[in-house]
Amino acid sequence: MSSYQILTDGAQDLYPELFHSTNIRRIPMRTACGGRDFEIGDDTTRDDILTFYRLLKEQPAYTSQISPGIYEHYFEQYLEKGLDVLYLCMSGGISMQFHQSEVAAKLLQARYPERTIRCLDTRTCTAGGNLICARAEANQAAGMDLSENFDDLESFKAHIGLYGIVTELDHLHRGGRLSSVGALVGNALNIKPFLHMRDDGVLAIREKVRGAKNATKTLARTAGEDPDPAHRICYLSHADNEALCEEVKKLILEKTEIETVYTGLLNPIIGSHLGSGGISMAVLCAKPVS
């Protein structure tokens, strides 16, 4: 059985306390805000992320996708060492990255015919990265080869429920994703868009909730709708809004059958679009998520 390296990208949250080894590495992604460039990957610090969100409160951010050339560079580092590569890509429904990773994989496969390169569209991102990457790491540790791991993850990803709330409508307006009238009306009514990742990997508005308190209740209620009875775990990522995150965590533990809630910072790649203060939540569901 060939050894293989698991890779993912900067759009997936990997909480430091859960991922200590080098079994999974993140290909960095870049975003810019307030005249500063940020590289989001394995070397990103907590201070880097908090600085980004402080800038994001006043100015829009701009992200850069990973080009096929950059994918080639990172994949080839491991191919040259005689390792195969399993890449867990952020959802292809919100980015062209999966397509670009496959372009790079095809080019490299011709140069390294004895090696295997598999790219998986995880159909998740941010907090969901903890679930898919933890599963991949556990599968590898249990002795699964790359193909077995890939096939298991292909089925597993359908059970990842990914949800989020946007708290700053002004940010959506500054970034051109909401009209000035929409932002004005939404703020006046205290609207908090409640998002979910559809089964095709597209992030969409599930409902519009009035007020932060109702938004936290909606997140908690959703977490408890269909948790996998064997994995009663939830992940909460926040865009520099620890107080709201802890409030959601408390509600989930009090009102649902979820037994463990991990919290961490939301990566700036997705945070660039959700805005400062937002919350992302990932839950492993018993049934496939629609």
From TrEMBL:
Q: Which SUPFAM superfamilies match?
A: DAK1/DegV-like
Listed A to Z, the keywords are: Lipid-binding
Annotated GO MF terms: lipid binding
Instruction: Extract the InterPro entries matched here.
Output: DegV, DegV_C, DegV_domain_contain
Q: Does the keyword Metal-binding feature in the UniProt annotation?
A: no
> Can you name this protein?
DegV domain-containing protein SAV1425
Q: Which organism is it from?
A: Aedoeadaptatus ivorii
